[in-house]
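Structure tokens please, single chain.
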Amino acid sequence: MRSMVLSATDISEIKEAIAYPKGIVIISHRNPDGDAIGSSLGLKLFLDKFGHNSKVILPSDYPGTFHFLSGIDQCIIFDHEQAKSKELIAAADIIFCLDFNSLDRVDKIGPFIQDSKAKKVLIDHHLDPEPFADYVFSDIHASSTCEMIHKFILDLSEGEKLDPEIGEALFTGLITDTGSFKYSTRPETYTTAADLKKIGVDDYGLQDKIFNTVTEKQMRLLGHCLANRMEVIPEYAAGIIALTKEDYVSFDIQRGDTEGIVNYLLMLQGIEVAAFIREQPTIVKLSLRSKGDISVQEICRNHFNGGGHKNASGGAAYAKLDDIVTRFKTVLPRYVNKRL
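Here you go.
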């Protein structure tokens, strides 16, 4: 599906809508990552400058890695505060939906967004956005939703309101969704980064906060994954790491502890497809990554009830871990040419 830009009329209407204080809710997807959190907080900090009563609602807890971001302690977690979340959504004048393309990505919040009378603005870079919003800013070529929020602010002619706190939040999404600018970049990505650096973002310090604060437990878990749970399939340029329910107990794995592990597979010479498969109490989840023209988005969409980006997607299935690993191996030849 092609990208969709906000027209001049759309921009004018949104600009008028946020000119005076209103009740605004900002929502991002379940299991929020750096881009979901960064775009939500960056937009909130921007809207606060207009005097709005803006609230960020996340369906589930966020990784502790991002605790340093301004305003993160004010985020409302739906899983913990359902009544308050429902009240805010029902009372909202405007709802911003960030970094997700369909209401099932926000789990139980979806029906409340659907029923709300608020004006809805979708800003997202995933394929095939559902038509539930009044205004849709969809750019499948953007590195991140944070890159799009930066453009959105400039399109509103409000660039002077950008400051280091907003910049740090938006830069977080740039870093995390591009793997520190290793993939999913385009010229606009670097233009955005340059602009944010000009307003005072310490990108070196930000990288240090995000990537150099792992715990001993997380480091030992990574070692376990690479030493004991990694399988390489050289004939299809693929690597798999599969964690069992017992692994979750042994390492006391919590939200955020497995972040980024899938990317280590792509560091292997000759590996072009990476699968990180986790067995949880009632469901098996997959994170797939790829290089070049191999579309893991199609694999997730067609076989694992998921989707995402061409080179970075996720899915899930109610099945046994071994069955999901076998299914992945079985469908892999349909998407990757066999190496001689």
